[in-house]
Amino acid sequence: MTDDIQQRLMALYPAINALDESERSQVLQQSVYLAQVPAGTVLFDEGSPCQGFPMVLAGEVRVARGNPAGRQLELYRVTAGELCVVSTSCLFGHTALMAHGQVSAAAELAVLSPAGFDRWCGNAAFRRFVFGVFADRLADLMALTEAVAFQRLDQRLASLLLGHGSSIHRTHQQLADELGTVREIVSRLLARFERSGWVSLGRERVDLLDAAALRAMATGLGP
User: What is the pTM of this model?
Assistant: First the structure.
């Protein structure tokens, strides 16, 4: 691993700086491999053993669960400086992966081997960092569970459209995958939003025309 890559890794994952220098250097040289992964690549599969602990230097990994019928529910996305809690859980519990990960934007990864992960987790500061991120992700997943269980799908779709600026570049299928539903329902709801004057639909994009109305829908105050 070059000095430049090592400095980038430590800047994104500051807990690595707390490791003893010899321990850090030895693991970085012997137990970490770098990978340039194109968009669309399946990084890991549900039910498979975890091959390593991915640290994202650039790009994005989408983590989701699927069912035999082909429907998916997005759990979270991992970007630079973040951790994948599915991989973490697998490594801590020595169990199979509970979801699959697919590279959604071309990614540069530093993958720590399971043995290297175990060695670094012997350091209290690194272990606290991992568990801290784990706790944050768990809170996000609890919020997702609440939304799926108690919010209407039109509310969840309105919420998903917000926070991306004036346009969101997704296909109807991608939006359906993120919501854990089918494309036909998303297309029907988007058509309703368009008739209401809230959005304008284009090829693989949705332009927001009335963010206030979408926000009211997302919070349950809309029609």
Answer: 0.69
